[in-house]
Amino acid sequence: MITSIRIDRDVPMKTRDGVTLRADVYRPDDGRKYPAILSRTPYNKVWSGNNDFLTAVDAAFAGYAFVLQDTRGMWSSEGQFASEWNYHTGQPLEGADGYDAVEWVAAEPWCDGRVGMAGNSYLGHVQWQTALAQPPSLKAIAPAIISSGPGQESRPGGVFEFEMIVSWFCMMALGTVDRLEKEGRNVSRMRAMVLQAMNNNDEVLEYLPFRNVPHFDFDGLRESFSESVMKPALEQLTSEADLYWDFSRVQVPCFHAGGWYDMYSGSLFTSFNMMRNKGGSQAAQEGQHVFCGPWVHGSNLLPVTGALNFGPSAGGLAASAQARQLAFFDRYVKGQDVEIPAVRYFVMGLNQWRDTDAWPLHQTIWQRYFLSSRGRANTAAGDGLLTPDAPGSQPADRYCYDPLDPVPTVGGRSLGGKLTPGPFDQSRVEKRQDVLCYTTAPLEADLEVTGPIKVHLSAATSVRDTDFVAKLVDVYPDGAAYNVVEGVLRARFRHGLLNPSPVTPGEVQLYVIDLASVSIVFRKGHRMRLDITSSNFPRFDRNMNTGNLFGEDAEGVIAEQTVFHDTVHASHVELPVIKS
User: Fold this and answer.
1) 221: which of 24, 216, 267, 290 fits an S-S bond (Cβ 3.0–4.6 Å)?
2) Candidate list 297, 565, 569, 572, residue with the active-site label
3) Could you tell me the sign of the dihedral formed by the alpha carbons of 335, 340, 346, 352, in that order?
């Protein structure tokens, strides 16, 4: 039994190109060798040790040396930080640094040569890059709340996680300001503008044309702003495969952790299934695990998410979040005979945990719910219906999308300085004329929906490019309407990011909108609702409806949108229904 640990601060390591990176090492204080867990962070290693997924102290008392390293150019580490939103610039550097860090840890006198990696968000991002580099001593990784590729999860839809990117850039820009000041630059004006952007980010988010936003127009920031924020997704793609990590090069087991209200909830299961099918070794393919609760993007796993309380079993402590991740490392790093479910997930509505061995579930029944109305589905008070019956001859629904008056983000899978993620009552936005609402009758019995969800929307627009946004909502008997999942698709990318094509105004097109995965029971007496609109701002960048590149427009064009739901052009949401 380990009764005491020691902490060594700022332990130096030399990379292959001579840069010194520094780490804090938490380990049992008994002089013995232990396997190690490495976590690499740009957010300050002192802060990153406290994490509801796995803390440094608890890992050390569980018989691991836990190593927290500041990434290149951040905090106590030397060198220059490379923006990870630029795949071609960032990936090789973090992969090389991760490789060097793993092998350095493995060779330390307090390590027995076996190394795992842990951490969430960016800390998960660098785990993928390290695993791709295949350091020999790496035995397993546990990337939490992170995408299944170098970009954001929404990128296949052709949009930017706008508020998240801007908020993240502001935070990282402060590190750049500090570095430039240490180099002797007068950065007082730069610092003031970056802080203004952080504290009043509406100034940045609403600035038009966005490419001319003045807050980052300084030598030392201008180039990284262009690369990190402004660079179009197409410039970073050579094939659709570039949207995802090359999982065939990842040879170790993975523990994928996340939450239903995290922006990467879809990536959680994409990574799991792609590693099962394409992982670079049999051990990797067979060693895939998912752990998903009703949580948002962050380190605190709370039972209260947004405006809803999912019960005492939903919290990280009650869900044994740390114990489950340690059990994963015990099995794949220490080699112990530990049983771990392939998938452990939380069913919202029932507020229960369940285990399964596949995603989607084997017993899934794919059920279509069709959009229906008499042509007046605008607002929740309209005549829009969501029904399992296929439509007959029906008039279409219409609304106007004005990019200067976008539908505001209310909860959902958001992240940043301005937005609060999670489930919130959507009644305010469902009063807008540019939101179509399709609602079921009150449910006669509980209805479980567990798995990936997609909306098939037949629609036309008056412009050459626009967006379509879909949101699935749980309507309570008292009328409160809580968002469950949402998705977006930019019209010109309806055939994929590598096949952009303008829309012919007035022509009916099929838009398949990915709403990612979820598990929820819509309770008896509740109603399901599907909202259709053309913006979710500022979570996603607003489409100015001009067809121009992101950030170029000072003015937009109002789009007249038509949604069809008839015999020829049916629109529906496909739900993964689980029968009890």
Assistant:
1) 216
2) 297
3) negative
Q: Smallest Cα–Cα separation from 370: which of 493, 273, 463, 455?
A: 455
456 as an active site residue: the answer is no
- The backbone region for 12, taken as left when phi is positive above 0, alpha when psi lies in -120 to 50, beta otherwise, is beta
Q: Does the annotation count 121 as an active-site position?
A: yes
The yes-or-no verdict on residue 503 having pLDDT over 50 is yes
CA distance readout (Å), 49 to 17, 25, 351, 409 = 27, 10, 29, 32
Reduced to 3 states (helix: H, G, I; strand: E, B; else coil), residue 120 is strand
Residue with tokens 């332990």: 11
Tokens of 481: 């309407």
Catalytic residue, chosen from 58, 70, 262, 531, is 262
Strand, helix or coil at 470? Answer: strand
H or E element in which residue 515 lies = strand 509-522
Query: What φ, ψ does residue 177 adopt, rounded to 5°?
Result: -60, -45
In this structure, the number of other CB atoms found within 10 A of the CB of residue 219 comes to 9
The answer to whether the Cα torsion of 510, 513, 518, 521 is positive or negative is: negative
- Confirm whether 393 is a catalytic residue: no
- Give me the catalytic one of 121, 154, 271, 372: 121
Distance separating alpha carbons of residues 23 and 33, to the nearest angstrom: 18
96 three-class SS? helix
What is the dihedral sign for C-alpha 325, 330, 331, 333? positive
C-alpha separations of 130 from 74, 78, 515 in Å: 18, 19, 29
DSSP 142-196: EEES--SSSS-TTGGGT--BHHHHHHHHHHHHHHHHHHHHHTT---HHHHHHHHH
pLDDT (tens digit per residue) in 128-186:
999 999 999 999 999 999 999 987 877 778 898 999 989 988 988 888 888 889 889 99
pLDDT one-digit tens code per residue, 114-130 = 999 999 999 999 999 99
